[in-house]
Amino acid sequence: MRACAGAMNGAPCPACHGTIQPWPSAEFATSRAVRRVLEGAVVPLDAGEHTAQVTAAVRKELETDFKNKDESLNVLACSLTLEMGIDVGGLEAVAMRNIPPRPDNYAQRGGRAGRRARIGLVVSYANRRPHDQYFYDHPVEMIAGEVPTPVDAARALGDRGLIEAGFKALGPALPRSTAGRSGA
């Protein structure tokens, strides 16, 4: 005998091949889980997809709803579209479906949790791939690993254009040399 929400009494149960029976009222009233739900102690999960598969307008609406405490949306299922420049408000936890490639990726993704409250939870699922398994066995190397500066990363990639673009972007902030200028 098994209780299933919304099913008709006597309907076949797909899990145990028996029949669905109503939950006895006395047992229902004394259930700790039922009490927590009725008292509002359990917050139901309301998820939205925040990936490149949805339009920019839908993603923006999800971000707004997620930050708005009056909305029920409290879970974002994200792809890498969430990585840069998006304020997700009081995000408290991040769950990753694999181990990121490098410590800087891990810091960027996991570091989004707990920014407002200064405490967050990061959970990473390690797949059976060698990369994930290695960092499952050696988590400190990912969590406290070296994060290269953008110039070091660009140099490691051999991307001269990226390095030049970085210096151009910093141009106004860089100190100007007066050496070789007339009147200086």
Structural overview:
With 184 residues, the chain is mainly alpha-helical. The chain has two domains: 1-42, no CATH class; 45-169, Rossmann fold. The protein contains eight helices and four strands. A two-stranded parallel ribbon has the order 1-2. A two-stranded parallel ribbon has the order 3-4. α7 packs antiparallel against α8. It is elongated and about 80 Å long. The model has no long low-confidence stretch (mean pLDDT 77).
Features:
two-stranded parallel ribbon; 8 helices; 9% strand; 2 domains; 184 residues; mainly alpha; two-stranded parallel sheet; Rossmann fold
SSE pattern:
HHEHEEHEHHHH
Secondary-structure arrangement, i.e. CATH architecture of the largest domain = 3-Layer(aba) Sandwich
Radius of gyration: 26 Å
- Can you list the strand order of the major beta sheet? 1-2
Total of DSSP H or I helical runs spanning 4+ residues: 8
**In terms of structural class, how would the helical and strand content be classed?**
mainly alpha
Count all strands and give the number. Answer: 4
Write down the overall geometry: elongated
Unreliable stretches (pLDDT < 50, length at least 5) are none
Strand content: 5-15%
Considering DSSP H and I runs of 4 or more, what fraction of the residues is helical?
A: 25-40%
Can you identify the CATH superfamily of the largest domain? Answer: P-loop containing nucleotide triphosphate hydrolases
Task: State mean pLDDT (0 to 100 scale).
Answer: 77
The profile of the biggest β sheet is: 2 strands, parallel
Number of domains: 2
At the fold tier of CATH, the topology name of the largest domain is Rossmann fold
